[in-house]
Amino acid sequence: MATLPTSTPAKTRARAEPEPIPGGYAGKLLRVDLTTGRTWDEPWSPAQMRELIGGVGLGAMILYREVPAKAGWDHPDNRLVLATGPLAGLPVWGTGGLTVVTRGAMTNGPVSTQANGFFGANLKFCGYDAIVVQGIAREWVYLHITDAGAEVRDAAHLRGKDTWQTQDALGQELGLSGHQLSVYSIGPAGENLVRFAAIQGDYGHVASKNGCGAVMGKKRLKAVAIERGTGALRVADPQGLMQAADVIGYDLKTDPSARSLYEYGTLPGVVNLYKLGVLPIKNYTTNVSTADLSEWEAPKLRNGFDHRGHQCNACGMHHCHMQIILSGPHKGALVDEPEYEGWSGAGWTIGATTKEDVSWLNTELDRACVDVNEFGWLCGWVMECVEKGYITRDQLGFDLPWGDTQGARRLLELITSREGVGDLLAEGVKRAAEKLGGDAQKCAIYTLKGAAPRGHDHRGRWDEMLDTCTSGTGTLESGNPVHPTEVGLPARINPFDGEAVARLVAGLRGRRNFEDSLGICIFTTRTRLENVCRALSAATGWAYTVEESVRFGRRTGAILRAVDLRCGSSPRLEYPSERYGSTPVDGPAKGQAVRDQWEKMLDTWYAEVGYDRKTGKPSPQTLEALGLDWLAKDLWPRSLSK
Amino acid sequence: MTRFVGGDGSGRVVFDEPLQTGSTVRSVLEGVSSRFPELRAALWHERELGEHIEVLVNDAVVGVSHELDSRLEPGDRIALLGQFMGG
User: Fold this and answer.
1) B16 in contact with A at a CB cutoff of 8 Å?
2) What is the pLDDT of residues A337-346, one digit of tens each?
3) Mean pLDDT of A438-459
4) Could you give the strand order of the β-sheet that contains B78-82, starting from the edge strand earlier in sequence?
5) Longest Cα pair distance anywhere in chain A, in angstroms?
6) Cα distance between residue A459 and residue A472, in whole Å
7) How far apart, in whole angstroms, are the C-alpha atoms of residue A214 and residue A186?
8) Looking at residue B83, what is its pLDDT?
């Protein structure tokens, strides 16, 4: 195991002749202690880079080494790691990547959650591969980063501003706009410690999972503003990197699956998932809609608005867009085009199908800065509870029928201000439902760990339900089945065969953690791992193989699992709530009962990944096979001493 | 998907395929894809379905109620969708 970065400033260290830094790396981490207001640079070694890569690989190790069991999500010793990776800032598509790793407020366990924009590129050009924040500031602050270093600055004037207002204000203050300044901030939700608060940046990019925004709020860190540095990034093989970038771009333009993503981002998801019974409608109460779904096809979703591209660093995809609402009560409003999960969480999940209203609400959620998935489950649950009388109009203070986006906005205000019933709802749907109990609890969608499911109806997508429930990242961890045959898996399976599903989830394990360590968008890695490894090799000079990428991802997963268990998780919590694991009553997945196969799925998954079914720990053999002998000694001290 | 069969990438394109005695999901898909080389390249990996197009028979993905070699009845509907991952 490589030695680890330290959490305290180094005074003087004897140094040998420094090893050359691999291409693609800036070569140092930025450490920030908000309690003292100190910042310092910390070099990391080429051996550490090879072992941890960056992103979640780096973040997982920092959590394991520096955040003890007693340091919950709101403890000063919790770390907020804002990491990028070796591909960030390079001319491969979508390389502005940010990976947030911390101990999150929803599960009180680890989280790895991503966003894009320009964060990663700007940070790397300033000379840093990651920011590691510890401590709690006495007053509200923001972190300002330039070529010259970092400074903790007063943020009293930003308090109460939403994320777009914060970016506007810092842009004016610093005299910078566009990609010259990347700002990631929290809104009122994060300031008021809403458990599902997110971190939003560059007008519409959100690291949203597991309450990472609440962690930032607890630290009283309002924003991180990074001026685009002027530092150059060296790569080992510039020609090879461009060739790899071209191959990836070509694949994204031509592959049957990636091509629609290239043209329309995630917009095709609405219609496609509806046809599979995977579009969540009205809090999982149905999978059938009377709406005209032809109006929800990707070209109509995009062209129904005045729109323009809002690309991330070096990206050639026609994915992220800004749009202006052309009609209705929000006519003229500038919003970010919702991702599929925005259309789902701010729309279908709560029964809202007026596109202009959904688009508006989605941006309101980004600006207040909450996770759109959790908000959808929460708001949909409240709407169903109001309909069935489990929550009364008097308790809420207003009526909230299905599809009422203005009412949803009022609910958001209650939550972000923690006013009235909003104080309970700000705890997220799991805690709120457990508090109400009875029939109200039965219709709430959550995992027993506390993590919010993604914006799909997982009763028709069992692989994601299993991955969500067993994950050590507070959200999906395993990986998308981009080219499953590349890692020895079948091209397709029966999605309702529990054992086949569990083998798929286990077999894909490692891909996502690898992708999320590179500083690149997960949508521009929708290509063969071989191509991604080729880009990484050209950047760094390593000869990185597909096998090594999977092994790396699984190693990172094992470390995250160790952190998760230390934080109080256990196999007892790897279950869906009653509604989440219920059986669809209509639509394409009607009658498919995931709960009937759940135990078998868990048994298969545990056997396939090599984790102990009883304790949840990776087995000693699994850890040793992954090169994690040191972790085996930590987790299995008695077994290994015999 | 519709780009593979001469469309503009949106909406849907519908074909009515005559069934022969013993027609299967495979034989109907082979018949359609033989007329559209781009679809053939995208849909098949040698004799098996490739990775990235969802094939539904009567609204259920292949593997649930029908396999590739299952017989078809008059009125059965086969739908092809571009695979959608993540969100």
Assistant:
1) no
2) 999 999 999 9
3) 97
4) B60-61, B53-57, B78-82
5) 72
6) 21
7) 8
8) 84
- Range of lowest pLDDT (A3-17, A59-73, A319-333): A3-17
Model pLDDT, residue A614: 97
Question: Does residue A482 belong to the interface with chain B, where contact is any CB pair within 8 Å?
Answer: yes
CB contact under 8 A, A491 and B51: yes
Q: What are phi and psi of A445, to 5 degrees?
A: -105, 115
3-state secondary structure A291-332: CCHHHHCHHHHHHCCEEEECCCCCCCCCCCEEEECCCCCCCC
| Shortest distance, CA A497 to any CA of chain B (angstroms) | 9
Query: Beta strands A110-115 and A98-103: pairing type?
Result: antiparallel
The stretch A587-595 carries a mean pLDDT of 96
Q: How far apart are CA A217 and CA A201, in angstroms?
A: 15
- What domains does chain B contain, in order, with CATH numbers? 2-82 (3.10.20.30)
| Per-position DSSP letters for B14-58, written without gaps between them | ----PPPTT-BHHHHHHHHHHH-HHHHHHHEETTEE-SSEEEEET
CB contact under 8 A, B85 and A481: yes
Give the pLDDT confidence of A33-46 residue by residue, as tens digits: 999 999 999 999 99
Hey, what are A499's tokens? 């054992």
Q: Kind of pairing, strands B60-61 and B53-57?
A: antiparallel
Q: Is the CB of residue A284 less than 8 Å from the CB of residue A457?
A: yes
CB A8 within 8 A of CB A35: no
Q: How far apart are the first and last CA of chain B?
A: 19
Residue A496 has its nearest CB partner, among B50, B64, B82, at B64
Q: Is the pLDDT of residue A492 over 80?
A: yes
Q: Do B52 and A256 touch (CB under 8 A)?
A: yes
Q: Which residues pair with A611 in a beta bridge?
A: A618
Angstrom distance (rounded) from CA B64 to CA B66: 6
**Which domains are seen in chain A, by residue range?**
28-227 (3.60.9.10)
The closest CB to that of B82, out of A256, A300, A496, belongs to A256
Q: Is A253 exposed, middle or buried (0-12, 13-18, 19+ CB in 10 A)?
A: middle
Residue A642, pLDDT score: 56
The distance of A266 to chain B (nearest Cα, Å) reads 6
Contact B10 A260 (CB under 8 A): no
The residue among A634, A551, A562, A610 whose CA lies nearest residue A53 is A551
Interchain contact A319–B (C-beta under 8 A): no
Give CA–CA dist A129/A42, Å, rounded.
Answer: 10
* B11/A contact by beta carbon, under 8 A: yes
- In A, which residues are within 8 Å of B79 by CB distance? 275
Residue from A49, A62, A58 nearest A134 by CA? A62
Radius of gyration, CA atoms only, chain A: 23
A640/B contact by beta carbon, under 8 A: no
Q: pLDDT confidence of A21, banded at 50, 70, 90?
A: very high
Query: What ipTM is given for this predicted complex?
Result: 0.89
pLDDT in tens, A260-302: 899 999 999 999 999 999 999 999 999 999 999 999 999 999 9
Nearest CA in chain A to B39: A256
Q: Does A266 touch chain B (CB under 8 A)?
A: yes
